[in-house]
Amino acid sequence: MLPADAPNLPPLPAEELISLAERAYRRLRDAIVDGSLPGGERLSERSLAQSLGISAQPVREALRRLEAEGMVVTLPRRGTLVAEFGPERLAEMGLIRVALEGSAAALAARRAGAADIARLRARLLAMRAATEAGNITALAEANEAFHAEIDTLAGNAFLLRSLQALRAYDHFGRLRALRATPQEPRRAWREHAAILSAIRRRDPERAEARMRAHVTRSLRASGLLDAFETERETP
Q1: Which one of 38, 100, 121, 144 counts the least CB within 10 Å of its CB?
Q2: pLDDT tens-place string over residues 62-96
Q3: HEC profile for the chain?
Q4: What is the third-level CATH fold of 87-233?
Q5: pLDDT tens-place string over residues 149-174
């Protein structure tokens, strides 16, 4: 029941609620990735809602999504906490991405039509614009959109769900890779252009090989793969 002094306003339409939840999700995800919300920090729905200037419901939806992706965890008597992200965990997720995204690219090459190629090209052009502007945040978003387009185009619901579950780890590793060296954004753009070329030519083997090589090299550029291998080799 609403308080007696509550204003008589109509409820937000569902699409606006989804938009608020999406914005809350992205803000919290980015704060976790950049370390503003460090691993182990307790998250309060009420405090987050006040900080973001929104109600608790979109924050609750955002936290559910982050928990499904492994970015936050809920523990008995401790509440909701930011998950701990060590290099080993991130590298393991990255290696899973190598296999899954390679398979997605191969399937996309078999299914892609003219409209699909046009959408991928638009994502690639957005990546180039962000690269030329030196906007790493926009580049990461366009980069993710390119990969998400391929994942959807693959047409395999089980593969898509698996890749979506890795999306947050993917975001973390991608930002680290793109910020690794000044040359990385242009190198990544060229690799995406090569992936699109293979899909456009309906060459599943080449599309898979180029995607696997790209994700592996990106993982190494982020420093996560080297840290993972070093940790495994340490007695």
Answers
A1: 38
A2: 999 899 878 899 999 889 999 887 777 777 888 89
A3: CCCCCCCCCCCCCHHHHHHHHHHHHHHHHHHHHCCCCCCCCEECHHHHHHHHCCCHHHHHHHHHHHHHCCCEEEECCCEEEECCCCHHHHHHHHHHHHHHHHHHHHHHHHHCCHHHHHHHHHHHHHHHHHHHHCCHHHHHHHHHHHHHHHHHHCCCHHHHHHHHHCHHHHHHHHHHHHCCCCCHHHHHHHHHHHHHHHHHCCCHHHHHHHHHHHHHHHHHHCCHHHHHHHHHHCC
A4: Four Helix Bundle (Hemerythrin (Met), subunit A) (1.20.120)
A5: 999 999 999 999 888 878 767 777 77
